[in-house]
Amino acid sequence: MRVLLGVILCTMVLLLPLRSCAAAMRPDLTITTIKQDPYTMSKGSQMEGYCMDLLSELAKKLDFKYNVHLVKDGSYGRQDETGAWNGMIGEVVRKEADLAIAPLTLTAAREKVVGMTKPFMQTGISILLRKDISEEAGIFDFLNAFSVETWVGILAAYLGTAISICVVARLSPCEWSQPQTEENSFTFSHSLWYTAGALTLQGAGPHPKALSGRIICCTWWLFGLVLLACYFSNLSTFQGSDSNQLMVKGFEDLANQQGIEYGTLSGSSTLAFFKNSNNPTYRRIYEHMERAKSFVSSMDEGVRRAKEGNFAFIGESVSLDLVAARHCELVRVHEVIGMRGYSIAGTLGSPMLKNLSVAILELSEAGELAYLRSKWWASSCMADAAKASPLQPHSLKGMFLVLALGLGLGVLLAVLELTTKSRSNAREQRKSYCTVLSDELSQRLRTTATNKKRSQETADKDKA
Q1: 24, 116, 301, 316: which sits with the fewest CB atoms below 10 Å from its CB?
Q2: Residues in binding site for L-glutamate
Q3: Where is the site described as Interaction with the cone snail toxin Con-ikot-ikot found in this chain (predicted)?
Q4: Which residues make up each annotated binding site?
Q5: What would the pLDDT profile of 116-152 be if each residue is shown by its tens digit?
């Protein structure tokens, strides 16, 4: 036992210097950054933000220590006329910092003087504007509450109900007791009118007297009540939703309209993109901004003008996403152009850049970058109501089924009423049941021309 304890103690004594050497071998990196919400922000004597969380995750993966300081001249990095670089890029070039971590755009000019990792965030150019800048209401917008398929289903249900009422009114002896002398009041045209009146909650008598006809009418009334409730509810949601289609859905719409002014930051890379583009649409946007002098001097000014309305602010999509998350009346359009990436800059030829790129890819594949994005771009707005959409037929399938059952039950009762009367008449007249039923059907299903002829004869007798 003493020998075993001695071996363990000797092993621990031998390993302690090795651990001290490993800790001493951990690189101590100097990191330069710039203060920008939400990438890097001050919190007392410490700094926090997306870039600081990303740096912490990278340090855990690659096992390095670091010291962070803010860039002295408060600049990202631009080359002057003499070829010298300022800002964070300049500090890395002069080896005043080992790494620069910030929303640094990966460009060809920067790639020549510093090493850049794989992008940790993708961005581009998009448009910010007020949510309530929407298209003018169309003439037939009241039809948008239901989808085309639903309207077709309602029309089919309407015609089916009218036909069922017409057929039941002819078959049922309780509704039309004397087909030889009486005229059937429920013609097909009257059935259409009666069904339409019931759908609009208006009376259009006469009403059916037979049980079969009343069952069909009650089912149709129930269907109409539910249908109207769904229509007005969905129409109200559709018209009151803030998610109306924006008048400006992209840069093509922006260039083709004259009602909304638009602009971008003066002297920004976004402006340079439009200025140097050969795309006709982007050139028209630049020429309009140059002609109207609609540039803004700061991001805050662009946001303020967008909030005031009738102004679209063009900027980097990730920055506009942050603005839209904090100003609930603003929204960023879906189209993004000029895609570019934010990367970490390091000393040209540094072997650590390869490891950083691999670590960034691993964090992306593990969902860590998406988590950090959702953490620092969290919206302070209340959740918007679900986007209004036309009501689909499957939403009313229960009512369509009830209506179909009601129509079927009504027709079945009318047939039973007719067969019961035919069986009774067959016994009284001592005729074949089939003969009596056939005569009843032929009398009740006679053509409209015969009814018109009878009506004319009755009118002639009245005149005589």
Answers
A1: 24
A2: 103, 105, 110, 269-270, 316
A3: 275
A4: 103, 105, 110, 269-270, 316
A5: 999 999 999 999 998 876 444 557 777 878 888 889 9
